[in-house]
Write a structure and sequence with these properties.
There is one protein chain. By secondary structure, this protein is an alpha+beta fold. About 40% of the residues lie in helices and about 15% in strands. It has 9 helices and 4 strands, in the order ααβααβαααβαβα. The longest helix has 25 residues.
Length: about 200
Amino acid sequence: MSLVLDPAAQDLLFREARTANTFTDEPVTEEQVQAIYDLVKYGPTAFNQSPLRITLVRSPEARERLVQLMAEGNQPKTAAAPLVAILSADNEFHEELPALFPHFPQAKDVFFSERPAREGAAALNAALQAAYFIVGVRAAGLAAGPMTGFDFEGVRKEFLDDDHTPLMVVNIGKPGPDAWFPRSPRLAYEDVVTTV
């Protein structure tokens, strides 16, 4: 059985997609980011909780503050990318549940009244949404450079608050020269899938 998605789109989103390490200086517009979000917001999450929050780092001052919090090897990439996004999980996502999950608005209190339950749910579902976001960046014809090499607590203090947990920093733009490392191997189907 073949996939329904066009092979060129499969390549764009998956087979040819890799983490970009360099970018051109072509700007990433607000309209492009809005189009990415307007697509990926439809990706499913449990209870439609949608805990991902996106902080766009556009000003030179904010960029410099962020660069100082990145691991040494990630600093040049973050300094040079046309746009950088901090993706975080909103641990107070439950406040939006009555609107986002209207057929069972009590879910806010029944399942998520306790902070530890919210933090676990937010981490998992925001990570799902972060993956959708990366695929959305690719669908927009841009490259993504997602990274977890940074001072998480520093990023929280500098850009977020105690209700948000940073997940990753994503450099975004058109790929530049030598943007890609060679493709790393992948596990085979039989190494991953077990039938019981």
